[in-house]
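FORM 7B: Structural annotation worksheet

SECTION A. Query
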Amino acid sequence: MDRIHVGKIYFARPGRQPQILLYEVTDPTEIAKIEDITRRALEVNKIPSVELVFYEKQNWQFSENGGGSRGSEIIVKRIIISRETAT
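SECTION B. Predicted structure
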């Protein structure tokens, strides 16, 4: 396994339902804070919902031809927060 990042990182995937991938955010208190911030953001934005996916660690495997792919990653928590549940 080639882990390319050590520490907390995130990636945002835009789309009809945006998705935010968070790595190495595993503490329940930190997760709760991010969920709360997301709920408050949905109250003032026009996005109907956001999916948060918390992973234990990122696992990016490089291939010999210069590309790469994701290896197996452990999901700590996955939640969809919608504007209706944000208030």
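SECTION C. Observations
Residues 3 and 59 are 5 Å apart (CA to CA). The mean pLDDT is 86.

SECTION D. Sign-off
Analyst initials: ____
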